[in-house]
C-alpha cells in the first residue's frame, strides 16, 4: 500500500479469498490522501505480474446537526443552549471546534463560550419574529463547515396610551393594573416596570408604554384598571376598561377625579346611581349606567333605522304662547332661558364637553310646523317634536311647576334625540327651567343623596335654579364618549356600567 508515493504497509498473502479493511483506528497512517494498492504475483506461466488499484480518501468538511435545538424565546429575554460538537468524516481532523467570530444573528445578540461549547442568545429591545443563528466550524486546512438554525422571538403584549381626566380631557399622572380574563377569573399581569403588586405608573402627563409578561399571541382582551394618582395617594375613582387585543396601542382611558368629593366619595357614587333609569335598590352596580343623554352631534344614533338623516341637536325652540291653554312667555323670560342654556355655570355646564350654541336657540311659535306638531288627542294638546328639536312650552294651570318628556331610539332609551319641556307660566318657569332641562339632559330621577346642593335633588329649586357641583360632575360622566359601548343584543349605544366608572378598589 503506497500513500502519496510513500509505502506505508506490506503484507504477504498466501491464501485465496483474502479480504481486509484498512482504517485509521488500526493504522493512524490511513488518513486522507491518494492510495495505490499494488499486488504482485506470478501468473500461471510463472511470470512476475502486478496489478495496481487506485483510490482517494478526500478531505471532507466537518458537519453538525442543529435540528433538535430549541431556539425559541420571548423578546427582551435570553436563553443559553449547549451546542452539539461538530464532527469530521476524516478522523484525523477531529476534534472540530466552532469558530467564535463566525456566530451571527439577524435579530439577536450572541455570546459563545468555547470552553463550555454553549451559546447565549439575547433579545434586542422591541425586536421579535422569526430570526436566524449562523455559525462556522473547522479550519482552513481541514475544511470549514457551516450551520444555520431558525428560531422565533415571541412578541410580548404591549400596552400604550394615555390616561386623561374625563372633565378636562388632559393627561394626568395615574396608576394602572392590567388583568388577563380567563372565563370568570382575572389574572393580574405584570410588566418589568411594575411593582410587586403589578401596579404601573404613567408619566406626569398620563402617558404609558409597557410590556406585559405574556405573549401577544396568547392574550385576547386585557382588562385595564386605572385611577388618578400614585399608590397610597389616589385622587380618583377606578376606571375598568376592556381593551381588545387589536387595540393595545394608543389606548385612551378617561377617569373620574375625586374632586370636589374627596371626603364624600360614597355619597357621590350613590347620587350617580340614583339618577339612573335602573330600578331600586340604589345603587345597583350590576345594572347598566343608563342616565339620560342627548345625542348632540348625531354620532350615537347615526345610521340606525329612522335616524339616517339625524345630525344631532338642531334647535331649542322657546314658544311665545300655548294656544291651547293661553300660557305665554315674555321676551324677557325667553332671554333668561337662553342665557341659562348658554351659561357654562348653568345648562351648558352639565353636558360635558358638548356645547349649546346661540344660533341653536330660537324664540316664537313655528307656524310652518316643521319643528313640531300639536297632538290634539290629548287635553290639553301636547307637542310632538321632530328629531333634533327641543320645544319649551308655557302651559297655563300646569299641575306641576314643570314636566319633561323625552324621545329617542326606543321607549325608555337613555339616548335622547328630541324633547318637550312644559313650564308653568309665570315666575315658576324661571326657577324650574334648569331643573327640567336637567331631566332632559342628564337625569330621569330625583336623587336623595347630596340633597339640596344639586339641581336635580329638589322639586323646589332655588331662585338661581342652576346645577350644583354634583350635576356638573355627573354630566362629565354621562357625556364622556369613551364610556359608550355597543351591546351585542342592542342597536343603540349606551353608557358603560357604573361599577366600571366609579369603582373604588384595585382588586
Describe the structure.
The protein is mainly beta and 507 residues long. The protein has 4 domains: 2-57, no CATH class; 73-154, Immunoglobulin-like, CATH 2.60.40; 156-259, Immunoglobulins (Immunoglobulin-like), CATH 2.60.40.10; 285-494, Collagenase (Catalytic Domain) (3-Layer(aba) Sandwich), CATH 3.40.390. 9% of the residues lie in helices and 33% in strands. The chain is built from 4 helices and 30 strands. The strands form 8 sheets. Strands 13, 14, 15, 17, 18 and 19 form a 6-stranded antiparallel sheet that branches. Strands 21, 22, 23, 26, 27 and 28 form a 6-stranded mixed sheet that branches. Helix 2 (331-342) runs parallel beside helix 3 (427-441). The termini are far apart.
Low-confidence stretches: 488-493
Helix percent band:
under 10%
Q: What is the fold named in CATH at topology level of the largest domain? A: Collagenase (Catalytic Domain)
How large, in whole angstroms, is the Cα Rg? 42 Å
Biggest beta sheet summary:
6 strands, antiparallel
CATH class bucket of the largest domain: Alpha Beta
Strand content: 25-35%
What's the architecture of the largest domain, going by CATH?
A: 3-Layer(aba) Sandwich
What integer is the average pLDDT? 88
Number of spatially distinct domains: 4
